[in-house]
Amino acid sequence: MSEKKKLNKELGLFDVFTISTGAMFSSGFFLLPGLASQYTGPSVFVAYLIAGILIMPAMFSMAEIATALPRSGGAYFFLDRGLGPLFGTIGGLGTYFALMFKTAFAIIGIGAYASFFWDVPVRTIAVMAVLFFTILNLIGAKKTSGMQNFLVVFLLLVVGTFIIDGIVSIYLTDIIKPAPTKEHFTPFFSDGFEGVITTVGFVFVSYLGLTQIASVAEEIKNPERNIPLGMLISLLVTGLVYFLGVFVMVSLINPEDFSRDLAPAATATSQLFRWLPNNSGAYIMTAAAMAAFASTGNAGLLSSSRYPFAMSRDKLFPGGFSKVSKLGTPIPAILLTASLILFFILVLSEEGIAKLASTFQLFIFMLINFSVIVFRKSKIESYDPGYHSPLYPAMQIAGIVISFILIIYMGWMAIIFSALIILVAALWYKYYARIKVQREGAIFHWFALLGKYQHPELENEFMTILKEKGLRHGDPFDETIIRSRITHIHKPTSFEKLVEDVSDTFSTEMHIHKQELIREFMATSPIEPALIIPEVSLLYAKHDGIDHPSLNIIITEQGIHKPVSKGRVSSQDNIKVFFFLVNPAKEARQQLRMLSRLVDIIERKGFVKEMMKHDGHRSIKEYLLHNERFITVKLINGTAQQEMIGKQLKELNLPSNVLVALVERNNETFAPTGNTVLQEKDVITIIGKPKSISQLYEKYKWEIHG
Hints:
The chain is about 60% helix and about 10% strand. The chain is an alpha/beta fold.
């Protein structure tokens, strides 16, 4: 992916939590409870809890794919790479419109609540809000999430106070008179099982903020931790607030009035917050409602704008929508999305939007759950999620069945609407996108056993994503570089002879069969195009019975001719640097991550010249390790490091999270042990966490070995 089409990674765990939570707290809490109660009565708060539980299979599936493929576009990108571009188009356009409808509805809510303070038209305020959020999104995701964080914190404080004050006032004191009676909860299920299921589907839209996290996955730092953890925390907090908050509303509002109330939170608040003067509690709740709608509108514009961006990047949308500004924001995609939201606000009515958005999102969740099964069955090794959905595949099958049942209860109008979007998306793909797209999804890799066609570039793309994600915590890359064998070859030799000699060395050191290694080193795989770099060759093998990776680096000034191929083009390259990597067979994905890290290093400017320039093994290894995680220090009397001379490594007073990895003594380099005694003029290489390395640098900065 070119630099101009990359998005900045600016969002942390708290940003993930607030984007998801902010997107869920608006109509779900401030508008829908009363409307939803007409289907099931007082048990509406139970329906919210059930909806939160039933969305978990989709959440787990979304988190798994998002940590494997952190790309903008969310459901679109997942469905495109899993089921192919037709389903990607359907999922992308459908989710895009569903999110925009939900965003428009939330922004209208801002106007509705603002009208309580100012005598202005609702839609005028809504239009101004869209323009404001558009400017924020154009500035950057971090600026957007900064406002999002403030809104969500304020909202949770107010709603939390509402719940606590409601439960205490109703059930622990006699402040509320008359106290709620059994009539508020009788009959508990006004329309039986069918009413509950219908209500669950109706309020499902309240939890769609989880979808919005996946659509900004490319901009999340440490996605393998922050995506699943942020989604889970957000769901737990939101589900608890919905359950308890709606329970308080049911307790305080007469059932007949509740079913017609479009602002039940404000109605309930009028009986609470009596410890505040002049009915200020109602004003605070109104401000909280506006904050909720603002956070949903803001997060909705942020996430929905990434759909045309991602689809444009994949040629399913006109190319101009994939352009990124100097601030790292997709300006054309944001402007298109903002324009459509403005159109919906000015032209469409709000009625039925929640049910329509829920219906199509349930369909998307069915496909997302199925996609996890497809990705796993495809056996694509570069599909490497940092988080795995529990109870696979039962969790995914349950999610598919749940979505299907809830769709049935949404009614014919919602089903027809969803079918219409699917038809439009399919026609768009057939007449616009199909001639521009030459790929297929992972489902063809699953069905390769039946002789179906695989798309070779898919594994190559996944390998590129793997490189961008980087190493995972615990991957022994640094240790493997430190232990690596480096050989300089000065005489001419053939590629076949080199592979045989290296395999013989591995065979002797690791007690494995030489011929098996030769066979694996000479084999090709779908990720080969991602590993082809001029004058450098990466060869790899896996073997049972070994417990750690091993690396041999071969450097030859004259070069060795090796056949290479990329796509349908075959040629020969004069290779000057070879990397031979052997991993335990059970760590296939770890091997891919380590290969990806090597590719990242090899792509440095002037890599081959730098490798040829270094003579000593220590300097080569340091070059390969070079980052903020190591320093090299020469031990000289009369300097700060004099205290190390004559001591065993285990006696040194170094931070606990650093390691003396290499010692160079008399032009020979070796990996020390805890009993190694350091001598004057030793050059030691220390690796560790950046913060600790920085501290050591400050201590020894005048004696750092150059």
